[in-house]
């Protein structure tokens, strides 16, 4: 491993049958979300070197939400370090009641069996916070968070983290009192990096490092180091180290030693 850790991407959409070499060629550690339990089953047989696949049930997809089964989710979680994409979407065709039922089940399960978890909250920021509070889920990573300043403060009280993409203004998070130690980078490829610096690909979070660096007055190389520290402390607090690919485990240890 080189002396510099690669970029991190805590939320990206990647097709399930992508070639392993393409993923390795990204030069980044990518957390690839799935949209349904079925899709996760498809990728769960893969053994990618630096990609971590999430167990997901996207709030925007009717079939995924209908097909959610709590027992199956619990079983799939056994070997998964990461849960995503899950959440609520106020613009979805899926009735909000069903979405709430699914997310409540997901959050309660991960409160009992801690995992890294990336939560979507588009047009449903208050409801997502209510469910986090109700279920006692800890250290939830709010992905592409667009809540108001008071909601952001409430999210902080609930122990949430924030994954930031190129389409967001990190200054807003800083002004709401979010410390840089609670930030992580994401692309949300292909949606979140639509106007990002090229190459627009999963794992390309250099523009996020620069934007966060500007917002917090920190050099972007230092921002990368902080992101890795933040990520590593999540891994430890969730107890998911052993579930990560060996190469990512080495990077986590390297980040902690620095
Ligand atoms: Zn997404």
Automatic annotation (TrEMBL):
SUPFAM superfamilies: Metallo-dependent hydrolases. Residues 186-205 are annotated as: Disordered. GO terms for molecular function: hydrolase activity, acting on ester bonds. InterPro entries: Metal_Hydrolase, TatD-like. PANTHER family: D-AMINOACYL-TRNA DEACYLASE (PTHR46124:SF2). This is Uncharacterized protein. It comes from Gordonia soli NBRC 108243.
